[in-house]
C-alpha cells in the first residue's frame, strides 16, 4: 500500500484536529478554507480512513483521527528535533538538552551539574525553564523537555524516575524572631504562628509531606499565604507575615533578614528526583546519566 502523504498534510490535519474548526485552522495556516478541506479529504482518501465527522455546526474527530492526532503530534516533534539536531551538528554543536526544574534544584544541584558537565562537553547547548512538578510531567510526556528535576514520589509509567538528593527540611524565621537554634525543641512551639507554605498546586505530594510534619507535631497550622516561589516566602517572612518550612537546599545564607533552623530530628525528608521519558531518543541524555 502506497501513501502520498506529505509533511504539510500532517500539519494541516493537526491544525484542524486542534481547533476542530476548518475556518480557524485555515486562517492560522494562511490558506483558503476550501483548499484546506480538499487537502484533508485527499489525506483521508490516501489513507483510506475517515478522520473527521463533519456536521453543520461542529467537527468531531473519529477514533482513527484521535489516534493519528496523538501519534502524529509526538512523531512530528521527534522529526522537528531531528532536523534541529542536524542543524546543531552543522553549526559545530553536538546537541542540546532541555531541562525543567523546581526552584530548589537551582540553588546548587543544577548549577553544579551544568558547570561540571560543560567542562567535559563544551559544544552542548542547554535550555533551562523553572516549572512546577505537574508542568514538567506534561513537558516530558510531550517531549517539550528532555529532563526534569521534581519533588514527586510517583510518575506515569511512560517515565523513569531516579532519586538524586534526599534532604532535611528547614524552618524559616525572621532574623529577630525570639526562637533560635538553642531554644528550638519542637515545631509545637510555633503553633500560634502564621505559616507561609508552597502552594499545594505546585506539588501536592510535597505539600502533603509538609502537612505530615504538622500532624506529627500535634497541631494544624494557620496558613496565611501560599506561593510558588522561595523568594516570595523569604520576603513575606522578612516582613513578619509569618514563618515557613522549606527544603534545606533552599537555605539562603546570604539573606541576613531571615534565619534557618534545620529540622534534622523529624522523620520527614524531601527528595529531589531526576525524571525523563524512557522513549526519548536524545543522545545527550545518556551522557548526563553517566555523569550524574
TrEMBL record:
This is LysR family transcriptional regulator. Belongs to the LysR transcriptional regulatory family. Residues 5-62 form the HTH lysR-type domain. PROSITE patterns: HTH_LYSR. Keywords: DNA-binding, Transcription, Transcription regulation. InterPro entries: LysR_HTH_N (IPR000847), LysR_subst-bd (IPR005119), WH-like_DNA-bd_sf (IPR036388), WH_DNA-bd_sf (IPR036390).
Amino acid at each position: 500500500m502506497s501513501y502520498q502523504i506529505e509533511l504539510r498534510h500532517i500539519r494541516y490535519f493537526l491544525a484542524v484536529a486542534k481547533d476542530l474548526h476548518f475556518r480557524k485552522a485555515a486562517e492560522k495556516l494562511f490558506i483558503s478554507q476550501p483548499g484546506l478541506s480538499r487537502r484533508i479529504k485527499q489525506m483521508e482518501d490516501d489513507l483510506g480512513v475517515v478522520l473527521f465527522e463533519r456536521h453543520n455546526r461542529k467537527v468531531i474527530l473519529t477514533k482513527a483521527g484521535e489516534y493519528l492526532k496523538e501519534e502524529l503530534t509526538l512523531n512530528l516533534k521527534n522529526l522537528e528535533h531531528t532536523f534541529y539536531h542536524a542543524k546543531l551538528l552543522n553549526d559545530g554543536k553536538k546537541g542540546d538538552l532541555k531541562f525543567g526544574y523546581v526552584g530548589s534544584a537551582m540553588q546548587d544541584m543544577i548549577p553544579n551539574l551544568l558547570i561540571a558537565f560543560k567542562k567535559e562537553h563544551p559544544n552542548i547547548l542547554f535550555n533551562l525553564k523553572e516549572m512546577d512538578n505537574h508542568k514538567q510531567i506534561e513537558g516530558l510526556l510531550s517531549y517539550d523537555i528532555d529532563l526534569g528535576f521534581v519533588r514527586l514520589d510517583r510518575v506515569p509509567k511512560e517515565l523513569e524516575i531516579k532519586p538524586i538528593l534526599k534532604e532535611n527540611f528547614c524552618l524559616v524565621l525572621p532574623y529577630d524572631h525570639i526562637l533560635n537554634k538553642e531554644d528550638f525543641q519542637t515545631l509545637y512551639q510555633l503553633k500560634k504562628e502564621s505559616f507561609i507554605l508552597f502552594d499545594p498546586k505546585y506539588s501536592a505530594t510535597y505539600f502533603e509531606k509538609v502537612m505530615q510534619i504538622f500532624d506529627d507535631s500535634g497541631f494544624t497550622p494557620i496558613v496565611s499565604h501560599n506561593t510558588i516561589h522561595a523568594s516570595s516566602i523569604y520576603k513575606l517572612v522578612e516582613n513578619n507575615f509569618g514563618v515557613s518550612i522549606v527544603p534545606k537546599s533552599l537555605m539562603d545564607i546570604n539573606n541576613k533578614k531571615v534565619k534557618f533552623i534545620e529540622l534534622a530530628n523529624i522523620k520527614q525528608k524531601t527528595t529531589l528526583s531526576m525524571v525523563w521519558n524512557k522513549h526519548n531518543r536524545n543522545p545527550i541524555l545518556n551522557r548526563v546519566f553517566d555523569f550524574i
